[in-house]
């Protein structure tokens, strides 16, 4: 199991440079209300030389599939073949309220989107007749376009997924998975569902990258270490209504349904601090790296045994230097747990490692 680092815009370059020094495999940038992933990763690409770059995740409703493919190909070329395209359908709250696009039939929409992205990256003439996307538009006299290159032929596509059907789709059509809020046991169940999708596509899990995000905080007092993580969990549990919130449903599946209801009730009433306090310590502890280096090493071993191939940590601390210290602790725990040093993942090797680059 390799290590990854989840970036924040404010100190993304410095953090990625330190992660590269420590042997982390990949630097990941989220996308949501406060920043986009491509800008952050573009800056990081210019300030690093070896570490992989992963979007976790670019929101499908925010860009057309061709625009997404163009951005991915450009960033991959500028970084020397280090980019991995992580995509996600987001949720109804963000899709309809923030981006103003429909959320209905998200799995079908994701399948069509990925097909068009792959077709563009393969430098094929981009024509498509789907339920959600049509290129060119029906009745248009415009002919099909194709990307002129250069484009990496095997630029990997990851999908964020929580539910069983979306996990199976991820296994079927993607090269990697982006997961969040998973215990080791839940990660194993998720990979079982992904394996179902892989078998449907006639593939195995060899070379498939299971990237799991996990908060990380160091300290002798586990409850104190968890304190800064509480607002983050409360916000995700409270996105939109309970029926459509993936993270609320996930907390319920893990046995924290009543607590999740209280978190959301407090959050929507304007009591964000109360919502954070209502997040169960057990939920945070079971889905994070908390405590002493020895305790963190044990948790890393559990995630590796569950089949996670890359653990992307989000270090929680007050300053950049303190976050780097968390990274150093996790890297040391990784070594002490006897886990292999970071090595490039199978589907993510760039042109310098022998992957072909197509030119038009």
Give structural notes:
- Helix 2 packs parallel to helix 3.
- By secondary structure, the protein is α/β, with parallel strands linked by helices.
- The C terminus is likely disordered.
- The longest helix is centred in the middle third of the chain and has 17 residues.
- The radius of gyration is 20 Å and the shape is globular.
- The chain has an eight-stranded parallel beta barrel with strand order 1-2-3-5-9-10-11-13, surrounded by seven helices. The protein has a two-stranded antiparallel sheet with strand order 6-7. It has a two-stranded antiparallel sheet with strand order 8-14.
- 45% of the residues lie in helices and 16% in strands.
- Strand 6 and strand 7 form a beta hairpin.
- It starts with a strand and ends with a strand.
The N- to C-terminal Cα distance equals 37 Å
Q: Strand order within the widest sheet? A: 1-2-3-5-9-10-11-13
* Helix content percent band: 40-55%
Helix/strand/pairing class, anyone? alpha/beta
Taken from the alpha-carbon principal axes, the silhouette is globular
């Amino acid at each position: 199991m390799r290590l990854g680092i989840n970036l924040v815009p404010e100190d993304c370059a410095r953090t990625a440079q330190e992660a590269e020094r420590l042997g982390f495999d990949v630097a990941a940038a989220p996308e949501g209300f406060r920043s986009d992933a491509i800008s952050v990763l573009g800056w990081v690409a210019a300030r690093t030389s070896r570490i992989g770059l992963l979007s976790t995740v670019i929101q499908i409703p925010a860009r057309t599939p061709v625009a997404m493919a163009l951005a991915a190909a450009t960033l991959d070329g500028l970084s020397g073949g280090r980019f991995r395209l992580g995509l996600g359908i987001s949720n109804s709250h963000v899709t309809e309220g923030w981006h103003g696009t429909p959320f209905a039939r998200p799995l079908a929409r994701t399948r069509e989107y990925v097909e068009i992205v792959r077709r563009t990256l393969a430098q094929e003439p981009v024509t498509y007749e789907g339920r959600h996307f049509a290129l060119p538009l029906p009745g248009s006299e415009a002919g099909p376009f194709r990307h002129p290159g250069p484009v990496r032929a095997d630029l990997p596509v990851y999908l964020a997924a929580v539910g069983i059907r979306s996990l199976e789709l991820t296994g079927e059509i993607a090269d990697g998975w982006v997961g969040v809020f998973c215990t080791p046991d839940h990660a194993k169940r998720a990979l079982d569902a992904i394996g179902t999708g892989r078998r449907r596509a006639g593939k195995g899990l060899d070379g498939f990258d299971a990237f799991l995000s996990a908060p990380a905080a160091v300290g002798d007092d586990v409850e104190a270490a968890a304190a800064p993580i509480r607002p983050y969990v409360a916000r995700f549990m409270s996105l939109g209504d309970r029926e459509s919130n993936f993270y609320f449903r996930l907390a319920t599946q893990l046995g924290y349904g009543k607590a999740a209801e209280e978190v959301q009730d407090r959050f929507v009433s304007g009591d964000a601090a109360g919502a954070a306090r209502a997040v169960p310590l057990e939920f945070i502890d079971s889905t994070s790296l908390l405590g002493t280096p020895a305790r963190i090493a044990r948790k890393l071993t559990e995630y590796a045994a569950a089949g996670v191939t890359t653990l992307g940590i989000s270090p929680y601390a007050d300053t950049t230097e303190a976050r780097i210290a968390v990274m150093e602790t996790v890297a040391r725990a990784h070594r002490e747990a006897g886990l292999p040093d970071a090595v490039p993942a199978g589907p993510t090797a760039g042109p310098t490692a022998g992957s072909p680059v197509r030119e038009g």
